[in-house]
C-alpha cells in the first residue's frame, strides 16, 4: 500500500505570547520547556501500535510518511517541517497503544523564532486564553500506601537474594472530575511551576518530566539520567546539606550507577565519542535528583526514534537486569502502567527529536477519570517508609496542579 502523501508548509509567525494558547483545549498536544517547544491543534494523521515491536513499527510508518511527503520549510530548525508528537507504552504487554500523531497545525518556538506548520493546508486557528479549570482531589488507587510498602519489602527480598540489583516500583492516585472542555490550564500551571522540565500533553497523558530520555539534533546525541532523590528544605543550610548528602549517599550513588550504565550500554551501538558527567545534585522546585549528563555523536543513518527504541526502558524507570526487573514489576504492581514511564516527545523528518520519560504525569480520559503515577527505585537497603515518602514528593507536581481551581 502506498503511503499517504502529506503536504507540509512551515512559515515564520509573528507571535510572542504563550504557545499553549495555540493548543487544542480539549485534546492538547504539547512538548515545552522554558517557553520553547511545540504545540499542536487537531489531528491530521495518527498511527497506533501495541506489543513488543511497537516503536519499530511506528518508526517504519514515520519513515514511509516522510519519504512521500512534500515539505516546504522556510524556517529549517529542529521541529519545523514534517513533525509528529509521540507517546509510547512502557511495557511490551501493555493494553495501551503507543501513538504517533501529526496534528493539523503546529506552532513552535526556538529562541526568538516562532513558526507555524500547516499540514495539507490545516485550518484557521487562533490563540485563545485557557479557561479556568476545576480542581481534583487525588486519592490512592489500586496500589495503596500499605500495599506499596509490602511490595517494597517483597522486592527487597528478591534483590538481597541476588536475583537483580534494582527495581522501580510505582503506585497510583486516582480521581473523577467529569468531562473537561479545556485542559490547558493544568498544563500552564505545570509549565509555570516547573519551567526547567519538559511539560507535555499527548492523547490524554500530561505532565512535567525532568528526565531526558534522548535528544538528537544535527548529529549530536544527549541524555540526562536521573536516579536518587532527596526532598527540598525551606532553609538554605538544610537544603544544601540535603543535596550534599544525596551526592555522597552510597545507596543513591549505587542506584544512579545502575541507571547510567544502562543508558551507556544501550547507546553504544548508536553513538560514538560518548561521554558522561560526574553525578551532580539537580535542583527542582520540590526535590533534588542525582543527575548525570550523557553526550555523544550519532552514528550516520540513525534517528531519534531508533534511539528511543534502543534506550527504553532505562534502569531509572525499570531496574536492572531489565528483563528480571520487568517481570517483578508485572508481579508486584496491580495495574498496567500504560504510557507512564514510557517515552514521550517529538520527531521530525530529519530524524531529530526530543524525548523525555513520561514522569510526574497523569492520564485524563474523555470521561474525566484521572490516574497519576509515581515510583521509586528499590535496592538492597531500601526502607519501605522512605520509598513511600519519595513517591509522595514525586506526586507533588500533579497533585498541586490538579488541586487548584481557576
Keywords:
23 strands; alpha+beta; Anthranilate synthase; single chain; 406 residues; 13-stranded mixed beta sheet; ten-stranded antiparallel beta sheet
What does this structure look like?
Helix 1 runs antiparallel to helix 6. The protein is of the alpha+beta class. It is built from eight helices and 23 strands. The chain has a single domain, classed as Anthranilate synthase, CATH 3.60.120.10. The strands form two sheets. Strands 1, 2, 3, 5, 8, 9, 10, 11, 12, 13, 19, 22 and 23 form a 13-stranded mixed beta sheet that branches. Strands 4, 6, 7, 14, 15, 16, 17, 18, 20 and 21 form a ten-stranded antiparallel beta sheet that branches.
Number of helices: 8
Portion of residues in beta strands equals 25-35%
DSSP strand tally: 23
Q: How many domains would you count in the coordinates?
A: 1
What is the CATH first-level class name?
Answer: Alpha Beta
Shape: globular
User: If you consult CATH, what is the topology?
Assistant: Anthranilate synthase
Poorly predicted sequence stretches spanning 5 or more consecutive residues: none
Q: Report mean pLDDT, rounded to a whole number.
A: 93
| CATH architecture annotation | 4-Layer Sandwich
Q: Major sheet: size, sense and barrel closure?
A: 13 strands, mixed
Termini distance?
49 Å
CATH superfamily: Anthranilate synthase
Amino acid at each position: 500500500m502506498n503511503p499517504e502523501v502529506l503536504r507540509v508548509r512551515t512559515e515564520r509567525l509573528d507571535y510572542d505570547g504563550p504557545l499553549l494558547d495555540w493548543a487544542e483545549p480539549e485534546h492538547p498536544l504539547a512538548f515545552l520547556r522554558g517557553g520553547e517547544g511545540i504545540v499542536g491543534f487537531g489531528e491530521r494523521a495518527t498511527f497506533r501500535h501495541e506489543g513488543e515491536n511497537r516503536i519499530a513499527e511506528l518508526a517504519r510508518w514515520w519513515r514511509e510518511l516522510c519519504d512521500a511527503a512534500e515539505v516546504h520549510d522556510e524556517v529549517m530548525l529542529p521541529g519545523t517541517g514534517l513533525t509528529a508528537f509521540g507517546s509510547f507504552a512502557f511495557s511490551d504487554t501493555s493494553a495501551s497503544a503507543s501513538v504517533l500523531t501529526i496534528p493539523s497545525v503546529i506552532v513552535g518556538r526556538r529562541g526568538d523564532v516562532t513558526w507555524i506548520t500547516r499540514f495539507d493546508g490545516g485550518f484557521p486557528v487562533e490563540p485563545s486564553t485557557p479557561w479556568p479549570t476545576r480542581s481534583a482531589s487525588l486519592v490512592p488507587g489500586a496500589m495503596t500506601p500499605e500495599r506499596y510498602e509490602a511490595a517494597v519489602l517483597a522486592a527487597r527480598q528478591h534483590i538481597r537474594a541476588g536475583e537483580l540489583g534494582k527495581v522501580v516500583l510505582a503506585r497510583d492516585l486516582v480521581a473523577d472530575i467529569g468531562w473537561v472542555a479545556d485542559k490547558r490550564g493544568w498544563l500552564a500551571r505545570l509549565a509555570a511551576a516547573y519551567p526547567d522540565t519538559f511539560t507535555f500533553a499527548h492523547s490524554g497523558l500530561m505532565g512535567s518530566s525532568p528526565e531526558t530520555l534522548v535528544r538528537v539534533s544535527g548529529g549530536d546525541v544527549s541524555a540526562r539520567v536521573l536516579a536518587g532523590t532527596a526532598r527540598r528544605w525551606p532553609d538554605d543550610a538544610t537544603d544544601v546539606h540535603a543535596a550534599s548528602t544525596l551526592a555522597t549517599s552510597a545507596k543513591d550513588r549505587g542506584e544512579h550507577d545502575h541507571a547510567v550504565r544502562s543508558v551507556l550500554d544501550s547507546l553504544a551501538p548508536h553513538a560514538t565519542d560518548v561521554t558522561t558527567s560526574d553525578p551532580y545534585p539537580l535542583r527542582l522546585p520540590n526535590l533534588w535528583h542525582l543527575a548525570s549528563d550523557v553526550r555523544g555523536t550519532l552514528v550516520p543513518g540513525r534517528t531519534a526514534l531508533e534511539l528511543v527504541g534502543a534506550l527504553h526502558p532505562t534502569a531509572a524507570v525499570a531496574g536492572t537486569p531489565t528483563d528480571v526487573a520487568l517481570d517483578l514489576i508485572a508481579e508486584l504492581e496491580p495495574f498496567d502502567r500504560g504510557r507512564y514511564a514510557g517515552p514521550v516527545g517529538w520527531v521530525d523528518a530529519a530524524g531529530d527529536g526530543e524525548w523525555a520519560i513520561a514522569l510526574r504525569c497523569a492520564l485524563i480520559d474523555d470521561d474525566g477519570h484521572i490516574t497519576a503515577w509515581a515510583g521509586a527505585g528499590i535496592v538492597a537497603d531500601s526502607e519501605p517508609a522512605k520509598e513511600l515518602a519519595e513517591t509522595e514528593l514525586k506526586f507533588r507536581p500533579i497533585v498541586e496542579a490538579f488541586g487548584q481551581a481557576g
